Amino acid sequence: MSVFSLAAAPQAVNLLDAGSLLGAFGALGIAVVLFAETGLLVGFFLPGDSLLFTAGLLCVSGNHGPVELSLPQVLIAAVAGALLGAQAGYWIGRRGGRALLARSRAGRLHEGAARAEELLGKYGHARAIVLARFVPVVRTVLNPLAGALNVPAGVFTLWQVVGGTVWTVGLVLAGYALGSSVPNVDRYLLPIVAVVVVISLIPLAAELLRSRGRRTAEGDNS
Q1: Integer Cα distance of 111 and 120 in angstroms
Q2: Is the whole-model pTM more than 0.70?
């Protein structure tokens, strides 16, 4: 099935398919998805990394796909959605605190919250806020968690802007660079996006394995 097969039917948009989202909503869809993924706990499942990379690919003129995006519009939408979403998540956490996470039954969210809190403790506010942008699920929960932990608003805002800009612009331009250097790259869009998704999940998978190993070791020593 083509990555764009759902684009022609907005009523059947696949929220987990970057091509479907871009085909249906264009640059506006990027802003909305990134806002939800980085600002609302319910958006942890959304495809932020693959969406940004795919959008960059589709900004290359002559890609021969049914969707052709404007690079300036994509960059503006991506940065705006990521930065506004993170800031909204921070203030939601500041007002709602840990009760927001406690209400959720999603195991991935709780694992992401544990990892986010570990990042904050291990690397400090600045590095943790920047690094979290590159780890799925963690980038969703770190922002409200930072608010719940009373990370200073000025510190959070500065470093979420740095991290969010590097993450969004970097992935979009990486996709654009690949699309510009490989002729007819749209033919290989599905496997390319699959590779991006796998790579983006490596840090989370590695951390889960490390956490399980640590818990097993602690259990053996008890």
Answers
A1: 14
A2: yes
